[in-house]
């Protein structure tokens, strides 16, 4: 992967529905070259599963990250155990038998029992738990909350369900599936985007490219300005930043996931990050693999669509209503 591939992946993580023409303009290559690069990355399994979801902000859900040393000897068995909890979105075994688990909780009351589950399933005696605050892919924040309450219609749920396993699907194809006009689908989809209730992303495994992904945990000096540290990380790492987050309950911690072409590049990158104003120390952990699981949030569109269809006597859509 070169710098252009990495930047394309970052843009697709921010919005996997971005048209090829817009991607081409942002990375300054032709549309055909963008298409070819993405096709190659799909064939190599670097990128996959372009998907759509209801935003965490709309759901008032809680994102958490847990990191601890695992006593398990099998990462596959650990992943199988973790998959039984529908709040877990991703698990990443790291070098040194560390394990990182990302979850989406329905509300904060689920935190304590969920932590106990993760500890047991991951065979971790102790771990760091962070409630995610400001999270961003590159310089684009995610999980923004809608300014006003949005009321989903059965058609909205049907559109999200249609895009759930292929967020790049054309409007005309969605319309054909749902037997409504393309104009109606576009209007509803544009409104959901504008109201910040739908997001488009993808599954990203840069390790298939021959390089490495690393989880970097920055410990800040007490009282440091986290926004200054985030800006410093962005300036130094740029498009090689996969995502970065701060935590509500850990005011002096910043976590970043970065892509490195080589271990030497990783080490050099971290030496420069360590010099950012406000950074006290850091730890770097190479990602060995990544597992993604279906969560309660992923199931919502189809479940809500079925519920509303049943409630309304089997009628999904009436084009005049929407």
- Percent range for helical residues? 25-40%
In round numbers, the mean pLDDT is: 89
Envelope shape: globular
Instruction: Please tell me how large the radius of gyration is.
Output: 20 Å
N to C succession of SSEs: HHHEHEHEEHEEHHHEEHEEHEEH
CA(first)-CA(last) distance: 44 Å
Largest sheet: 10 strands, antiparallel
| CATH C-level name of the domain at 61-142 and 206-289 | Alpha Beta
| CATH fold topology of the domain at 61-142 and 206-289 | Alpha-Beta Plaits
Strand content: 25-35%
**Unreliable segments of 5+ consecutive residues:** 314-322
The number of helical segments is 12
| Class from secondary-structure proportions | alpha+beta
Q: Provide the CATH architecture of the domain at 61-142 and 206-289.
A: 2-Layer Sandwich
According to DSSP, the number of beta strands is 12
Describe this structure in words.
The chain is α+β, with helices and mostly antiparallel strands and about 325 residues long. Among the domains are: about 5-40, Winged helix-like DNA-binding domain superfamily/Winged helix DNA-binding domain (Arc Repressor Mutant, subunit A); about 60-140 and about 205-290, Alpha-Beta Plaits, CATH 3.30.70.100. Helices cover about 40% and strands about 30% of the residues. The chain contains 12 helices and 12 strands. The protein has helices spanning about 5-15, 20-25, 30-45, 55-60, 75-80, 110-120, 155-165, 170-180, 180-195, 225-235, 265-275, 295-310; strands at about 45-55, 60-70, 90-95, 100-105, 125-135, 140, 200-205, 210-220, 240-245, 255-260, 280-285, 290. Strands 2, 3, 4, 5, 6, 8, 9, 10, 11 and 12 form a 10-stranded antiparallel beta sheet that branches. A two-stranded antiparallel sheet has the order 1-7. Strand 9 (about 240-245) and strand 10 form a beta hairpin. Helix 2 packs across helix 3, helix 7 (about 155-165) runs antiparallel to helix 12 and helix 8 (about 170-180) packs across helix 9. The longest helix is centred in the last third of the chain and has 16 residues, at about 295-310. The N and C termini lie far apart (about 45 Å). The relative contact order is 0.18.
């Amino acid at each position: 992967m070169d710098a252009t591939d990495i930047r394309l992946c970052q843009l697709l993580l921010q919005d996997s529905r971005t048209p090829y023409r817009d991607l081409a303009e942002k990375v300054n290559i032709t549309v055909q070259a963008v298409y070819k690069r993405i096709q190659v990355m799909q064939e190599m399994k670097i990128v996959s599963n372009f998907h759509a979801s209801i935003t965490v902000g709309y759901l008032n859900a809680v994102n958490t990250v847990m990191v601890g040393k695992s006593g398990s000897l099998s990462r596959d068995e650990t992943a199988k155990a973790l998959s039984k909890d529908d709040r877990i979105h991703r698990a990443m075994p790291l070098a040194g038998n560390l394990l990182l688990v990302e979850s989406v909780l329905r509300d904060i009351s689920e935190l304590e029992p969920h932590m106990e589950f993760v500890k047991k399933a991951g065979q971790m005696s102790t771990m760091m738990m962070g409630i995610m605050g400001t999270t961003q892919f590159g310089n684009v924040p995610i999980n923004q909350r809608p300014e006003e309450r949005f009321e989903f219609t059965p058609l909205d749920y049907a559109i999200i369900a249609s895009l759930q396993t292929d967020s790049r699907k054309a409007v005309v194809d969605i319309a054909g599936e749902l037997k409504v006009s393309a104009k109606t689908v576009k209007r509803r989809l544009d409104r959901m985007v504008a109201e910040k209730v739908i997001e488009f992303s993808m599954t990203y495994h840069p390790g298939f490219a021959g390089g490495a992904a690393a989880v970097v945990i920055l410990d800040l000096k007490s009282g440091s300005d986290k926004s200054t540290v985030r800006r410093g990380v962005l300036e130094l790492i740029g498009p090689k930043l996969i995502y970065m987050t701060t935590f509500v309950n850990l005011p002096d911690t910043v976590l970043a996931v970065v892509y490195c072409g080589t271990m030497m590049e990783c080490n050099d990158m971290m030496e420069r990050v360590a010099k950012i104003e406000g950074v006290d120390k850091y730890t770097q952990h190479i990602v060995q693999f990544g597992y993604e699981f279906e969560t309660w949030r992923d199931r919502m569109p189809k479940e809500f669509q079925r519920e509303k269809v049943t409630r309304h006597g089997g009628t999904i859509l009436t084009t005049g209503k929407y």
